[in-house]
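Hey,

Quick one before I head out. I ran the complex with adenosine monophosphate overnight. Inputs first:
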Amino acid sequence: MSAAPLPPGSTLGIVGVGQLGQMLAVAAARLGFRVRTFGPDEDPPAARVAQAHMAAPYEDEEALRRFAGCVDAATYEFENIPPRSVAVLQDHVPVRPGAEVLAVCQDRLEEKRFLSSLGIPVAPHAPVDHPGGAAEALRAVGGEGILKTRRFGYDGKGQVRLRAGDDPAAGFAEAGGAPAIIEGFVPFEAELSQIAARSVDGAIAFYDTPRNDHESGILRRSTLPSGLPEEVSAQARALTGKVLEALGYVGVMTLEFFWSRDGGLVANEIAPRVHNSGHWTREACVTSQFEQHVRAVMGWPLGAPDRQLDAEMVNLIGADAEDWLALASEPGARMTLYGKAEARPGRKMGHVVRTRPRQ
Ligand code: AMP
């Protein structure tokens, strides 16, 4: 399939329809592209800013073929799409990143095997396929840890913390009884993420490395600069570059890390897409992560990722978004609301970025 840059006026297809798709669509429109979205809901955030939306299940191959007929290239903003669906699209149009990337990133065990094969440190872990195997897996990682389903987990969902004295078999049942892994606790001082992009011709651009604070397994805040030693960011870039090259990746990808002075960087997971910890790039960088992804998918050269401002991004989770009027009145608070109808607890409703001149 041609790797030639697609000209303005071409149509980008986005599979997945949440806030990431919404911000991708806005960035694509700014470069002169048309956008069509595909996903199961009738009126999702991304569809509000797209030219057309096809509401169909991700598994609907007939609908996917029709969608492919209306777009010039496609991408996804959600990693739990069946690789088979991406492969169906790939028969007709370039899909970047491709289905093979999903196969690695959808399964926490495969992902850890892949990262380890590249010499990238990961948390101690052991697979659990049935309740009877949970106790031994917990012992293997040191007696305390987090049980995570291998597939379909996000924002702390599908996870159960297991401390000394807890019944690991009950934890397995609580997580749904699906194949899982138990990870040992990584004693980290900070969490960070490396957001990077790779173009069709193999050029790579790295963003500055944010420091990320989580609450209840959900990202609360990303801070730039991170305040961590520069060698840490250099190492995060080197490891992320290895992953991009090994996957022959095209688009924006994020590698999440734990860091401690003694243990160095330990990779947590790969997000094969634009990432919540990169939302500040819209306000603080020459090229946002969203524009960068669109550029890569459409075969364009990458833009400069340079950060021009210091920044803090805070997520508006659940009822936080009720403060929209106060935030709208705060000078310098740059708020994005995703337009989700229902503010369920733990649901990301929007975010605020505050910037200041670089120190
Ligand atoms: P995850 O869904 O794997 O990204 O986990 C969500 C959050 O839970 C992470 O960002 C950490 O704050 C915490 N967490 C997950 N796994 C571990 C671990 N092995 N050790 C310590 N904290 C963890």
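The domain at 11-95 is CATH 3.40.50.20 (Rossmann fold).

Talk tomorrow,
K.
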